[in-house]
Design a protein that fits this description.
Pfam families: Asp23. It is a single chain. By secondary structure, the chain is α+β, with helices and mostly antiparallel strands. Helices cover 34% and strands 28% of the residues. It has one domain (13-114): Alpha-Beta Plaits, CATH 3.30.70.1350. The protein starts with 12 loop residues before the first helix and ends in a 7-residue tail after the last strand.
Length: 123
């Protein structure tokens, strides 16, 4: 055990984005992550067999400065969900998940980009 040994530790932006995306996806009422353009490109990648590319961090951007992190989440909300409740739950989930890695969350910004409407049978 090396008590008292100093060093510089850091967590990359991509790692923070993956943590935040996973936390946001678990919130009830979140249908998808990402804006229109990101979701479009993901559908194209899915069709050509690259369905894993971009999925892990889609819709999430993190700004990491040392141990301080600010996260922005763009999401699609499920029809019928209460927007304010989903936003509050996403902020809490992301903050908790990222803080669990020893980082200080200075803010979690949430943008609702779309509403996922239920599919109608016969259309």
């Amino acid at each position: 055990m090396s008590d008292g040994v100093a060093g510089v530790n850091s967590v990359s932006r991509e790692v923070v984005e993956k943590i935040a995306a996973a936390a946001a996806r678990e919130v009830p009422g979140v249908a998808e992550l990402g804006g229109d353009v990101a979701r479009f490109f993901d559908r194209v990648l899915d069709r050509i067999g690259l369905d894993e590319v971009g999925d892990a961090t889609r819709g999430v951007h993190a700004s990491v400065k040392g141990a301080s992190v600010e996260v922005t989440v763009v999401l699609v909300i499920a029809a019928g969900a209460v927007v304010a409740d989903v936003i509050t739950a996403v902020q809490a989930a992301v903050s908790s998940a990222v803080s669990g890695f020893g980082l200080t969350v200075t803010g979690v910004n949430v943008k609702v980009d779309d509403i996922a409407m239920p599919s109608s049978p016969g259309l």
